[in-house]
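Appendix C reproduces, verbatim, an entry submitted by the partner laboratory led by Prof. M.T., so that reviewers can inspect both the input and the predicted structure.
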Amino acid sequence: MTGVLFLTESFHPVLGGGEGHIRQLSRRLAAAGLPATVLTRRIDAAWPVSETLDGVRVLRVGPAGRGRRGKYAMVGPALAALRRERRAFDVLVVRGTRVLGLPGLAAGRALGKAVVLQPELNGEMSGEVYTWGTPLHVPAVRRAVAVGTAARNLLLRDADAFVAMSRAIAAECLAAGAAPERVVRLPHGVDTRRFSPASADEKRALRARQHLPESAVVATYTGRLLRGKGLETLVEAFAAVAGDDPRAHLMIVGSGEGQTLSVEPQLQESVRQRGLGARVSFTGRVDDVADRLRVSDLFVFPSEFEALGISLIEAAACGLPAIGARTGGIVDVIEDGASGLLVPPGDAAALASAMRTLLADPRRRERMGRRAREIARERFDLEDSVCRYAALFRELGG
């Protein structure tokens, strides 16, 4: 029996696409007979050191506290925990290579375990992620970082497998020197039964419960409210659209609370200053976003730096056409002109134009939504994803 341990910087109750992916995957692996353990950081001292969630053991190590330094400080305690748990797993899956990649690989090798590296962001293997969005994103610094990253990659490419959630990340792994046979393109999956289109009657009832006007055309974003997600651009674009179409309503689902890169207060202030308070809904954190998507008419995902975007896949499964930035793994989900529209990252005018196009054309939204649902079922179904993960882990752990 192959045991799997996921080593990750953050996990439940942190709410995010990657955290949700590991929770769903580990739970279903455990149900399929592959014992799963998650080893993560105890960000909040009130969280339990250990617990069992849905048949999955969750172990948390210190130090507690928000901020980036804690991610590095967890390395020592995490390595000690790996040694203690060495009899509980055969395959070590390291989510994210920036902090835990090298230590995790070294520990796995020392313990005689198979190691799978799973980059969680674009640019991890090229080094771009270290400077993007900072004042250090200048040619001289980027060149220096690229040299250091290439040296690190000489060691990382010894991993038994690289799981790439998008074409862009797969290409990065190959460019970093990973053997082609070790790079497995395996996108995150979603439960396409839970995330499914609402009937007209269901939609009316859901809108009434959520206090949304039945006549509104609702554009929705779901995810964390962080810098780099393009949310400032979204509010600017919607402000331009709102003046043209009185039916348009923007729903922003999620929170940035407790996150270093949160832009939630700034977004709320921007909406207030623009006089859009009645036209923009901030829901805050919700544990189940399916009903928010099922009342919506289109999805907007303007993220400027996105590995894949599980929120985008959930929206597609709900039959929503999407407008997304042409970057990272977003292009793996949106077929431009068929299931949605792609726009340049950070371009508020282009985003507003795309929103106007879909807000004004219900037949096109319906047609694109059908194709989006097909894509979700064909490429991103959770059951298929779990089967492929299980096969990979059994092969490596056998």
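Residues 8 and 40 are 5 Å apart (CA to CA). Additional entries are available on request from the coordinating office.
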